[in-house]
Amino acid sequence: MTVPPTSHRARSRVTRRGLIGAAGAVAAGAALTPVVMANTTPDATDSGAAEAGTNSETFPSTRAKAATGEGPVEAAFPIGYVGVSWAGTSETAGGGIRLTDADGGKGTWKSLSGSGCSGSNGGALLIPADQASGYELKAPDGASGLRSLALDTTQGPRREVAVPKDTTRVRGVAYLSRGAWGADESLRFKADGTENSPTVYYPFQTLTVHHTDTPNGDPDPAATVRAIYQFHAVTNDWGDIGYHFLIDEKGRIYEGRYSGDDGIPAHDADGKLVTAFHVGGFNSGNLGIALLGTLVDQGPTEAARTALTRLTRVLTRLHGVDPKAQVTYTNPVNATKKDVPEISGHRDWMETDCPGGTMYGELAALREAVAGGR
Question: Which of 74, 96, 136, 342 sits at a 20 to 30 Å CA gap from 176?
Fold first, then answer.
């Protein structure tokens, strides 16, 4: 399939590269995250060559196999993750998974652990599968509509992506753009070439912190981001990854939801926030940052904590809000209101354990740290 251009909007006279460069000059004295490469250009697969000012790098294509119900599933590739989703309950009690190894041996049944980052009337988990060849599932008690997705984001056929030679920064803070973590932009489009979830923008109101409820000590976080992207964009039918930014344990920041080529990541050229999918019913004007890992019994690494603080600081400065304030969020689509902290956790909005008990307990310190750096 030929992928349509990455931006369906008219080009602004101010480009993302120009805004980022100007912002970096303003923030020349600001503390920086580690230097990482970034990409603001389309996938280079069709052209076969990188654009001017970029390097051509290769990433594995994501391989996926979708299934429904509890019957055995076999895949023709080593499974890195199994995405599991259901309706009817957010509980995992009674649910389980049993993996099949490469030799056909059956593992033991393991409970579906974690609460994911989901709403109150259903669940969604991304479960590591350790290169299994297949699996079986048991649905949680009271669940309906069980769906699963076998994923390989590390060993698929290689594809070329144009990655800029220069580091991309948001007001001095370096980040990995979508191309730099290997996002396959074709996932954002339907079979007929139309965008599954067209970009819509509203003024910024609040910022919400999440955890991804994936394993800690992740050896390949970019592969995990690609798995989350596939799960969100295709299985959940959101057309894209649900978060605006993600942060791994080494403090690397990943650009999430596609927002066009103008303006800084997650925004249009006028500074409005692209609507993502991270807090059901309260997404428009609500910026979502997800920490990779499970932060129920442990907090983020110091590198991740530092990156979260710096990114949150530049975003709250950008929008001129008080990070310690209590605000009334008003959904610009349906006028639904919710009283929340300016910097909130997912559980402030709905019934979920996200961003994990330990991380939620750190949010007060995060607000103080962000405010203190102003």
Answer: 342
Amino acid identity, residue 330?
A: T
pLDDT at 315: 98
pLDDT of residue 123: 80
Residues 181 and 303 both lie in one domain: yes
- Predicted local confidence at residue 41, as pLDDT: 36
Peptide bond before 355: cis, by omega within 30 degrees of 0?
yes
Q: Which of 224, 273, 277 is nearest to 247 (CA)?
A: 224
Q: What secondary structure, in 3-state letters, does 240-256 show? A: CCCCCEEECCCCCEEEC
CATH code at 132? 2.60.120
Element containing residue 363 per DSSP (H, E): helix 363-372
Residue 323, token pair as written in the block:
């990070």
**What's the rounded Cα separation, in Å, for the pair 254 and 250?**
12
Cβ-defined contacts of 332-335 (< 8 Å, 24+): 332/202, 332/203, 332/284, 332/285, 333/284
Instruction: Verify that 197 and 273 share a domain, yes or no.
Output: yes
DSSP state of 179: G
Residue 255 lies in a domain: yes
Question: Rounded CA gap, 67 and 79, in Å?
Answer: 14
Ranges of the chain whose pLDDT falls below 50 = 1-49
The domain of 90 spans 63-152
Q: Is 43 helix (H, G, I), strand (E, B) or coil?
A: coil
